[in-house]
Every structure is written in structure tokens, then in C-alpha cells.
User: Which sequence fits this backbone?
């Protein structure tokens, strides 16, 4: 049944969604998500307890995470019933932000498959309004709330204001669409102050979301600084900055399968370098079940995706979970496909 839904969605994506102007397609996709009660259908879920993983002490029923993009609680609520082990809300800033003007999202056909480039610019209702919006959201699976900011104080305020509504908190220091967020990676000493201040402001498990663009700094300074501050989960990673004349900002963040080779390489490098003391979320280009399995095999504890949700639809999570179970090695227990990480250097 889920394969039939997968085929139907692919036909719909090819025939309708990918032909509409991007703004109309995104509006229609979100309208469907709100309107259709897909989360009531068990075909989208695999509840096998062998899939459960623990992230920062929080149990996820499985290792698949919907990556940060949606802030509407009605969509987050639906997504929680679509097979994911956790759902991430959009990065929130202290004050409301209108985001960058349209066009702020375009499709791109890369050699690896269909991707997106966005310069969304953190369109969000701001901390106070978002606290009210999240207050009534039941957590069918864990919710990851996400914070962005331009100063240490702003992150601290947003994290302290959001933490009661999330099971984990993600620090976005990597979106390429606003200069100040993106540049945290280029100022590791200040990033360390940020990590320490935020760590003091919440008892919830923290995740640092890093950029594929600043890899050397990530490996050599940011991840060690995060771990020294008591933050032991890294999401690698965000979109990659590219020039794009069709966008209002003439540049944006590339997402989708073109990122996958780097994601896999980065996961393996982090696992080799930091060992079992670091938990890793693989994110960037995961849009097929086999890619999630490869990321887990490379050392990821969990896998997140967003573009795959758009291009492959709601059946992808269930198909991926089925493949993870089918490829597990029964002798060792989940996460069976992990290598044994060497000790931290
Ligand atoms: C339209 C759009 C909006 C996004 N907004 C956010 C955001 O608010 N915060 C964030 O951390 N990442 C954001 N992302 C990045 C995704 O969460 C994800 O890290 C990235 O797209 C790579 O994964 P993917 O290839 O599976 O899409 C956004 C991506 C897109 C396409």
C-alpha cells in the first residue's frame, strides 16, 4: 500500500507540483499537508521497537527526523504522524521576521537529482507568538525546537523561551541566508562563548547545526568547542551557499541530493575524530532509503531530511524505516549498521 502512495506522489510531483511556479507549489503542498488527515493512516509508520534510538537522553521511536523548515503547528502535528521519530520546527528569532522577499525559493535539477535553493531569511512570527502557537501542540513524537540569532543574548533568550515547548533544542549557526547566523562558524572563539552561555540557559539536550561550507572550522574548532561546553549532538548539516540569480538575494542555500556525498563524508569524519562521545545527525541530501542506511553505516545516530519530504512525499519515511530494518545485522542489535567508533583523539 505504501508503495502505491509513493508511486502516486511521485507522479503528482512530476506531473503537477514540479511544473507549477515554486511559490504556488509550496503553497499547495502546505495546504494539502494541513487539509488531508494523512497522519491518521498507519501505513506511513513503522512502530517496530527495534528502531528506537536515544538522542541526548530522549528516546525517539526511530532515527528519522523531519528537518527544520515548517513553523505552522498544524503541519508539525501532521508530520508527527508521518513516520518520523522526531520533528524539527523552523528556527525562531527573538523578534518576528518577514523573511526575504519573493522569489525566495527555486527548484534546481542537479546531476544527483531534484533540489531546492532558498533564501527564506528566517521568516517567522518571533519568540512570543511562537510560544503561544506551540503551547497546544501534542508531542506524538519528540519535537525539536530551533533557535537562531545574531548575538549570544538573542540565542540565550530564544532558547530559554522555547525550551519548555521542545524535547530537544537545536542551535542554528549555519543557515547561509543571513550573514550574521552564517558567520558564527568563522568566529570560533565567539561561538564557544555562545555555546557556554546557551548551555547554562537550559537543561534540555542541545544540538548544534553546522554548515557544510565551513568544514575545517567545524571539525577543528566548532565541534570541540561545543563538546567542551557540554553540547554533544551535532547536526551536519545545513544547506550549502550558492549564487542564484533567480532569487531576490541573488544567492541562497542549496538543499537536496547534491549535498549527500559531502554529508556522508562529514559524518564519517566526525565519527572517526570524536568517537562515541558525540552524537551525529546526518542531514543533507537524504532522499532515498538507501542513503539513510549509508549515513547510519557511516556513523550517524539519526538522519534528517527536508527536501526529500517535498520531492518524495510522505511515504519516504516508512519506506526508509522498512529498509533500515531489512538491512540490520541481527547479531549486534540496533544501531546495527554503525561501525565501532575509535576513541576520541
Ligand atoms: C525552504 C527551506 C527553509 C529552511 N529553513 C530552515 C530553518 O529555518 N532552519 C534550519 O536550521 N534549516 C532550515 N533549512 C535547511 C533544512 O533544514 C536542511 O538542513 C537542508 O535543507 C538540508 O537537508 P535536505 O537536503 O534534506 O533538504 C531550510 C531548508 C529549506 C529548503
Assistant:
Amino acid at each position: 500500500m505504501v508503495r502505491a502512495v509513493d508511486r502516486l506522489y511521485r507522479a503528482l510531483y512530476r506531473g503537477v507540483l514540479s511544473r507549477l511556479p515554486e511559490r504556488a507549489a509550496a503553497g499547495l503542498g502546505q495546504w494539502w499537508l494541513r487539509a488531508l488527515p494523512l497522519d491518521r493512516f498507519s501505513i506511513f509508520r513503522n512502530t517496530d521497537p527495534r528502531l528506537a534510538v536515544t538522542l541526548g537522553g530522549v528516546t525517539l521511536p526511530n532515527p528519522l527526523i523531519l528537518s527544520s523548515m515548517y513553523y505552522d503547528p498544524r503541519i508539525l502535528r501532521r508530520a508527527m504522524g508521518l513516520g518520523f521519530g522526531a520533528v524539527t520546527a523552523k528556527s525562531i528569532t527573538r523578534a518576528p521576521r518577514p523573511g526575504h522577499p519573493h522569489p525566495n525559493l527555486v527548484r534546481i535539477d542537479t546531476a544527483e537529482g531534484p533540489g531546492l535553493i532558498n533564501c527564506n531569511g528566517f521568516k517567522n512570527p518571533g519568540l512570543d507568538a511562537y510560544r503561544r502557537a506551540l503551547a497546544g501542540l501534542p508531542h506524538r513524537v519528540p519535537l525539536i525546537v530551533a533557535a537562531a540569532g545574531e548575538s549570544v543574548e538573542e540565542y540565550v533568550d530564544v532558547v530559554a523561551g522555547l525550551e519548555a515547548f521542545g524535547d530537544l533544542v537545536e542551535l542554528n549557526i549555519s543557515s547561509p541566508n543571513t550573514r550574521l547566523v552564517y558567520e558564527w562558524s568563522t568566529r570560533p572563539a565567539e561561538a564557544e562563548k555562545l555555546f557556554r552561555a546557551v548551555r547554562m540557559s537550559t537543561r534540555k539536550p542541545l544540538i548544534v547545526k553546522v554548515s557544510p561550507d565551513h568544514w575545517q572550522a567545524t571539525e577543528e574548532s566548532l565541534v570541540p568547542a561545543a563538546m567542551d561546553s557540554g553540547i554533544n549532538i551535532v547536526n551536519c548539516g545545513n544547506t550549502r551557499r550558492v549564487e542564484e540569480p533567480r532569487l531576490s538575494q541573488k544567492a541562497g542555500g542549496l538543499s537536496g541530493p547534491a549535498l549527500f556525498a559531502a554529508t556522508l563524508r562529514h559524518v564519517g569524519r566526525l565519527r572517526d575524530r570524536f568517537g562515541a562521545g558525540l552524537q551525529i545527525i546526518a542531514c543533507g541530501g537524504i532522499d532515498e532509503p538507501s542513503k539513510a542506511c549509508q549515513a547510519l553505516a557511516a556513523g550517524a545516530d539519526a538522519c534528517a531530511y527536508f527536501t526529500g519530504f517535498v520531492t518524495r512525499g510522505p511515504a519516504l519515511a516508512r519506506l526508509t524505516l522498512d529498509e533500515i530494518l531489512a538491512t540490520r545485522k541481527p547479531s549486534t542489535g540496533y544501531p546495527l549498521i554503525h561501525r565501532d567508533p575509535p576513541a576520541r583523539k
Summary: Residues 333-345 have pLDDT under 50 and may be disordered.
